[in-house]
Amino acid sequence: MLYLLPAYLSENSPIEYFAPSIKDIIMNVDHYFVENEKTARKVIKFFAPEKKQPELKLFLLDKYSETADLKEAQKLMKEGVDFGLLSEAGLPCIGDPGNIMVGWSHNNNIKVIPVNGPSSFVLALIASGFNGQQFSFHGYLPIDKEKKKKEIQNLENVVNKTGFTQIFMETPYRNNQLLEDLVKFLNPNTKLCIAANINDPEAELIQTKTISDWKKNKPELHKIPAVFLIGK
């Protein structure tokens, strides 16, 4: 089986936010596909402190991975070894390359089991006050300045024409620059929701304001996990 396991969005997330079954799965599974080994070990320790870390066998699955790079893991799965799949934060396969092994599993009759947990963009969407019936998640915007400007303006046009909420992210160390670009390129009356430090009881920030209001008081978002939404 391939278990799609949630990771916390914040290290300060209360354990009560998560299903007890996650610990049971981790205690019984030693093999994992992970986006980042250090993060994965911390997440596993968070859910199951008793799990013996030396027993873990971690296989790197990042944006550069291809199924051909994972032949050892695939052989083990075909022999009946259960695996877990962990993202760096939230649910796997959203904003990360976990779908590579999920697709392979379907093609090879490996049962895929999604385990309930937090998704940053879904939590941001339901807390934004925007349209939750029709929306698009775009992942990361282009790094190139001109391409980013064009994409931001395209997203705003989609919202104005359709009312569909537009959701996107940025690498945390570039959040402040993205916010500067948003307030620069979007219409002053356009509504923007910023959802940062989601699930952190002490530091969570989720607010929806017009661009003109954000210009007056921009939050400090450097190296803070955040989701951005444009909507009505």
From TrEMBL:
InterPro entries given in the database record: 4pyrrol_Methylase_sf, 4pyrrole_Mease_sub1, 4pyrrole_Mease_sub2, rRNA_ssu_MeTfrase_I
Natural source organism: Epilithonimonas pallida
Name of the featured protein: 16S rRNA (Cytidine1402-2'-O)-methyltransferase
CDD domains named in the record: RsmI_like (cd11649)
Signal peptide as annotated in the record: none
